[in-house]
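User: These chains co-purify. Model them together.
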Amino acid sequence: MIRFNTLKELTAMAEEKDLPVHEIVIAREVHDSQHDRETVLAGMEENWRVMQAAIERGIRNTERSVSGMTGGDARRLYGFREEGYLGRPALSAASYAVGISEVNAVMGRIVACPTAGSCGIVPAALYAAKEIKKVSDAQIIRALFTAAGIGMVIDQNASIAGAAGGCQAECGTAAGMAAGALVELAGGTPDMVGNACALAIKNLLGLVCDPVAGLVEVPCVKRNGFAVVEAMLAADMTMAGIRSAIPVDEVIDAMNRIGKALPKSLRETSEGGLATTRTARAIEKRVYPEQSKR
Amino acid sequence: MHGVFDIVGPVMIGPSSSHTAGAVRLGLMARKILGEPAVRAEINLHGSFARTYRGHGTDKALIAGILGFSPDDERIRDALKLARQQGMDYSFQPVNLEDAHPNTAVIYLVGVTGRIARVRGASVGGGNIRITNIDGYEVELTGQYPALITIHRDRPGVITQVTQILSRYEVNIAFMRVSRQNRGETAMMIMELDDQPAEEVVEECREVYEVENAFSIPAI
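Assistant: Joint model of the two components:
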């Protein structure tokens, strides 16, 4: 029986057995779900299919969300991908992440990863890896289990809900999951998977959840684009040999404590931060005219 | 610890797991409890549901569930139109409930044969739901397990008779709750089961003298 409660336990188990992290996560899932390995892999293959369809739809999307706040930015960025400072790989990834989030905002089909608000980050990173590193879909489907293992540990020891831990719990977790998966695809060791996760999360600690008009749009949609680029940088730093001074499980513990210390107004209640700016109030009035007294 | 597909997954229609995916599941549970297609739905929304339902498509999601759609059905965004085409009336009313979860809906349904159901439930995060009241009875249902519900006279021995039937068919009870409005009058028992009970199990429960009605709700 395979049990892990921390990323140290997960990656050490992989190092010890000389297996990639995803094999440990798959073995655990096979045991816990009582489904066979093929069924478990097929479930992730279906997720990856939905993720790719959302990316393809997202980079062409011109539809505005119900509130009118978002839509069309992924397409803009994708068209600009050869021209910017960051270069094609990062700008492609950012446009994929924004695109998936736009699909989410127009009531399209997505895979929560770990949540709907942060659904663009992990798939965008992996879709970019497919282009940059020429990795196969089969490798990506396995890397998604590595990402899932990271998310499971964070869910267990901190939180993946904005209402509980702020946006660090959603986009921070997704960036950590993406960074770990990217390192695995780049040929990093299990220990390096944990290191990339630590680097990615550290930089997003304290991120608050203050959505305008209570909707999963502003700042969520563009933030997915920022977070995927950050995850790629965490993976590249790790592959370049950079170490996180703080071990990943201690970073997750810090995330948990920071989440608890965040005031309620900055945990998805839209009672603070960006949500209470003058412009946000005006948008809110336009989206919900009947509640303008609020 | 949650499983792999709780973290990478579920496949759902956006924009929000609690305000959209969870709302579809609430509508779906209400439809299953009604037990037949609905011709009318009156829905009261409380808290964050009341404030943001239009922007999140919570109204479309609830109606989609009542139409029997699952949370990953791309027709959810057109659910209001589809309901009207099928001749289903609906209305939404913001309400202020005491001590209710911020994402609570009270769903009143009238079915094609005139059956009615009043279901109160909350979307409690990550697309998960909790049904807290059915037709005035306090309950606790998540939709993660198939359930068997009996409405029966509040007399000694009824529970034993029903559970004996389940035992005979080797159906295991995972969670169970009994509630009543007044002593000696009508009571409701909800059993969440490890397996969906066969129709003959439900039939037999219905034949118990004190049982007025028994029905099962599949896991959703």
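Residues 173 and 183 of chain B are 25 Å apart (CA to CA).
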